[in-house]
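thread: overnight batch results

M.L. [08:02]
morning all. the overnight job finished for the chain we discussed friday. pasting input first so we're all looking at the same thing
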Amino acid sequence: MLVAVSHGTRSATGRRTIAQLRLAVAAARPGVEVLAAHVDVQKPALDDVVARLAAAGRACVVVPLLLSTGYHVRSDVASAVRAARAAGGSAVAAAALGPDDALVDLLCDRLAAAGAHDDDAVVLAAAGSLAPRAVADVEHVLAALSARRAGPVTAGYASAQEPTVPQACAALRQLDGGPPGRRVAVVPYLLAPGVFSQRLDALLGDGTADVVAKTLCADGEVDQRLADLALRRYDEALAAAGALEEGDLSPLAGVR
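M.L. [08:03]
and the structure it wrote out:
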């Protein structure tokens, strides 16, 4: 059993897009049942889903459809898994989707699809977090993206941190040594449309950037590489669980 847990959103487009991602995960691995869960805004709530599975004697792997190891992974996912195991169930938590080279590939593709040139300056627009691990995850992706491009790359944030995305765009325009009229492209490091992409649109509404790419998943455009990455995290969690003492996670033997 794979519990695909997303943040949850009030955006109808965001809900539809994440549902499409879950369907892509299920289609790529027909032998694995995929259940939806959320840590905020939407139902069913993650702790309810995992507790129900534990009560039914069903083992599960919780796969966060989240890009970094922030509060929701460290707190919500971890506590749901701990509660299920305390109740006698078998549950393990997979790692967040990012950082990963597959996400960097997607960011590059989103930039190209939006019309960005290789020498454009780029702002990696992340949601922002106060969690040091989440910040480090974004910096890891930033370094990998920068290594693939000719122009400068920096991060901007929609909340919690600075620089903001507009501040990052302005700083790139003021860089010395760039070509005259260098363009600035923004690529959202966001899984799907929702509150942060709406906030980003508002921040960029005055033409702050020359090019604005789509989120990693866009409405009707779920890339198979994201589904494959979620399944890789699932497999990694199962492999790690198998390395523990057999008595801890023996019911997981039938999950595959």
